[in-house]
Fold this protein.
Amino acid sequence: MKKIVYGFTLLFCCFITTSCHKNFLDKAPGVDLTEDNAFLNKANLETFITTIYRYGVHSNFRYRVQGEAVSSPDRNYIPFSGVNTTDCIHPSSSISDEGDASEAAFVNNNRWNEGTVLPATIVNVEDFRYYIRWIALRQINLVLKRINEVPDADEAYKKQVIAEVKSLRALNYLEMLKRYGGVPIVDKVFEPGEKAIVPRSSFSDCVKFVVKDIDESVPNLPAAYSASQTGRVTALVALAIKAEVLLYAASPQYNTATPVLPMANAADNALICYGNFDQNRWQLAADAAKEALDYALANGYGLIDEPANRNPKELDNGTVGPLGNYRVSWETTNNKELIFMYQGGGNSAGAITNIGNAPLTFWNASCFGSFWSGISVPLNFLKKYEKLDGTPQTWDAAGGTDLLAKYAELDPRFKQSMIYTNGYYTARDPIAQIYSGGKDYVNCKGGLWLRKYIPRNATSGNFVMNDVLFRVNELYLNYAEALNEAAGPVQAAYDAVNAIRTRSGMPDLPQGLTKEQFRQRVRNEIAIEMLNDDHRFWDIKRWLIAEEEGVMKGNMDGLQITRTGTAPNYKYSWKPYTFETRTFNKNMYLHPFPLTEVLKGNLVQNPGW
């Protein structure tokens, strides 16, 4: 059964070709292409819907829009800091303890680590799609306003399209809620010359707006599409959006009487939190996650879990070992765990070259001569990987001589997610030389390269990777977290998180945990399972732990690795060291609105900016 992966095949091919790089409503020379044309017939509407997907679906790897410079509403081009619009800038992994960008001066994400984010530069230091979202929202509202004008569209089709675009609207509001709190709710089309003055809505109203769009959409969305239409929003996609927005709404950052940093005007605190704590919000989040999970399992989705592949035996000598369930879940296309994907990147070998997190693309001329920044993984995050028996691994401050033995004791997901000393690198260069003097150690401050989403057959410039927005594993973890917060560590919460651990060869969580102990274990599980899925940066903030030492603030440690002895009996010693001290200020729990937008007088800026 095909899932939401590299499809939307017939429609999507339009906007990965040169001829379709322009907005559907831009006029080609000599062609009278107007807004009205989009609603002349069903075929034109389908083409316009393709454009909405293009602008309305984001990438976890921070693509903007392939091949097109997108301008802000005042027609001034967004300042792109010298990189063009086909670039993938960088995933959020390097903003948290998940990773460190090897080229700090090059990668704008590092401004977060330095505490130097500014309202004038926010569209270049994480929210590259700020203006693109508003283009998508106008297109969506236009369809909602005019779809009944399409003469050859039957009622069932119109209901489906309305449900699709409302779900995409919900997705875009979810993305803005995560960054800004309450934002303007725009559910109409402003006519040319009409002044658009829409103030921010409360956080609560924005959550209600998202949930309403989803609840109205789910009954009119299919469980799956034909092969040629794969990639469109399904009912499961919509349910996953609802589960995530309610999880955020229940979390400490928003489900509180007192925001972490209050607004200058106390009445404006409603823009960034509920203004009260309500335990029932966690139950609503648990119910939404369970609804989505039940729907997924009833419709052919599920975890990748072949018992024989739970703990693949890596040989640690540059030899390719078995894939392992976890790697299959993120590397292979069209697998049953994938719910929804970004599809604006390359669709064939050679189409994605520089992806920001690739160990193949760090600044090291000896490593294929590429020129983008890779992500190394700090010891801060490495410590989250448990031993195979479920107990913590020990990383002595004095170091040791047993690095490969340490790695061999870890959760199987470790080796399926990293390029590590003496492990497999690429077919072109099999053994990872991550040690002092080794070519793959250049700028590898953490001592590991983050590999997840880089397929095994990757070489410089010829691979395609999944860009996952929603997966089934997330639903299990959402449910476990929310249910524990709502009712404590009941058996259903254990079952959900243990399903994730079992498929990767890890033992069940011990029974008898307190609510707080279960909370810490499930948060650790989320960190490991959702590595490089654009979750950690947001989870840290919604849990209000960014200021804890070594998370987004304080020392980031790595491993100094030394090779001794002679082949084939090399030994690898290790010693922790601090490579960076990061800054996190309380105002960074929320993004600032772009300065140019605040200066227009419509938006109340977030606190501390």
Remarks:
- The longest helix spans residues 155-180.
- The radius of gyration is 24 Å.
